Amino acid sequence: MEHEILIVDDEPDIRFLVEGILNDEGYKTRTAANSDQALAAFRTNRPSLVILDIWIQNSKLDGIELLKIMQAEEPGIPILMISGHGTIETAVASLRHGAYDFIEKPFQSDRLLVVVQRALEADRLRRENAELRMRAGSEASLFGDGPTIAAIRSQIDRVAPTNSRVLITGPAGSGKEVAARMLHARSRRAEGPFIALNCATLAPNRFEEELFGLEGENGQPMRRGVLERAHRGTLLLDEVADMPLETQGKIVRALQDQTFERLGGTTRVKVDVRVMATTNRDLQTEIIGQRFREDLYYRLAVVPLRIPSLRERREDIPGLARHFLERCASSAGLPLRELSVDALAALQAYEWPGNARELRNLMERMLIMMPGNSNDPIRADMLPTTISQGAPSMTRLNSGADVMSLPLREARDLFETQYLQVQLLRFGGNISRTANFVCMERSALHRKLKQLGVTQDDRSQIG
């Protein structure tokens, strides 16, 4: 991520000197000679760091007063104070009001660069820690070994380094936000903020305030919106179809120009933000119904990315279930429990209307609420009836089952049918992997399945 540094000093020679030192190291710079120029530059486009002179001639405000205002508006931005007339008292005062460090003039260029690098690194770590706290309990990567999810991860790897906008579609709970976080983490903006705005839970009259923020007196932001907070990072418009039409029209221009005005203000704020959006609706249908703007759709859907439902990638369910169990056991300090083959078959047979989120919640509930010894595996009969009742009937057999009353040939056919249904589910309908597990030739397994009337996708055979 390219860092931009604002240099505030009334002496042209100092501004020129500091700008040259920083430009030689690859930093982008802007300069200001007085407090009015400094605040205008600070508010128009937030810098990564400010180098601020304490004593500014011919200026309404001195450096300490500017420091207070900048810290009040943007507490996270590191500010490095410089002065040729510094005393211990002024240095202590600047640090007390939130300055990162204090350097006396004349200074060595190496000393300046070291402090700048340390300040930017400290700010990066602060933002990274805040992001990790926010993400605690959420997934950071799309999990699964099947070809479907592998293809999506490949798409993410190709798109992430670009600055293109991405529209992520898929049913609720399928992992759309996880995909957005992966795109951000693999992008050149990974060190910048990741801000998510949930359009589905926000009251219609709050949208513009959340997006653009509020402006108070003298151009000061009373409250920064998500566009401003996501500067040099990524903004996710989660479930964007729920955004009011009026707000959609206003954000179109913000996306096009990367500038906007805060509510109640006249100053145009410039930002550098990559925008992504998610939706579980068909936006083309929403456009036809005049519930979504076509021009906004084409600005958001530069690169479309579809996340499939969990039932479309049943082969990933066993690994995903174990992953959720391991994560829950680690975070809650509970012993890990295994899933039996019949439980896995039941999980793969279920339709999962809530997708991966529903599976994650179930695994957490099972680990916490399961009776019995922690060394005992989780079996199919321990799962909720809504899940276990859809499992292949073999997983529900007991010593009193009707199979004991059948002739040997019919009992054997019933057993083989149910056994192969379970194994096909277990391996996501993959004939080669199923044949390898049951120790049969692939062609022999095909003949056996045909003889028994078992098909890979015939759901009516299961139950």
UniProtKB/TrEMBL annotation:
Single GO molecular function: sequence-specific DNA binding
Domain of life: Bacteria
Keyword terms of this UniProt record: Activator, ATP-binding, Nucleotide-binding, Phosphoprotein, Transcription, Transcription regulation, Two-component regulatory system
Transmembrane portions of the chain: none
GO biological process, one term: regulation of DNA-templated transcription
Residues where 4-aspartylphosphate is found: 53
Pfam (any one): Sigma54_activat
SMART domains attached to this UniProt entry: AAA, REC
Gene3D superfamilies in the record: 1.10.8.60, 3.40.50.2300, Homeodomain-like, P-loop containing nucleotide triphosphate hydrolases
Span of the signal peptide: none
SUPFAM superfamilies (UniProt xref): CheY-like (SSF52172), Homeodomain-like (SSF46689), P-loop containing nucleoside triphosphate hydrolases (SSF52540)
Span of domain Sigma-54 factor interaction: 142-368
PROSITE patterns: RESPONSE_REGULATORY (PS50110), SIGMA54_INTERACT_4 (PS50045)
Residue span(s) of domain Response regulatory: 4-120
UniProt entry tagged with the keyword Manganese: no
PANTHER family per the UniProt record, alphabetical: TRANSCRIPTIONAL REGULATOR (NTRC FAMILY), TRANSCRIPTIONAL REGULATORY PROTEIN
Record's protein name: Sigma-54-dependent Fis family transcriptional regulator
